[in-house]
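Re: that chain you flagged

S.,

Sorry for the slow reply, it's been a week of failed gels. I finally had a moment to sit down with the sequence you sent. For the record, here it is as I used it:
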Amino acid sequence: MLSLRRFRIFREASDCSNSAAISSSLHHRISESERSFGKIDEPALVKLKNERDPEKLYTLFKANAHNRLVIENRFAFEDMVSRLSGAGRFDYIEDLLEHQKSLPQGKREGFMARIIMLYGRAGMSVGSVS
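Prediction finished late last night. Pasting the structure tokens below so you have them in one place:
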């Protein structure tokens, strides 16, 4: 048993050194591709999380209405609604949620329940009834 333990420790240490070398070479490759093709674009969820301006947040969310990663992420919806309601932009919230109803995912019962819940979180109970 002791001999296997030493081998395992040695192997883990060698794996760590190999992973550091691999990550530095991967970083080098990404840097080369950035230089040759321009800056790599951030994912939509990162852009939505970092955006602080309500108008830009609205346009980003509307532009990514068909992006499955954004649509299926309930936290992105909750974050968007809480930030827009904090800014007092209930017109943007209503427009975005009504737009989501017209898309194919708006036909699913679970998605509609999420939309109703988001209206309630924004304090827009009239919108959730309709």
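What I noticed first: The chain is about 80% helix and 0% strand.

Talk soon,
D.
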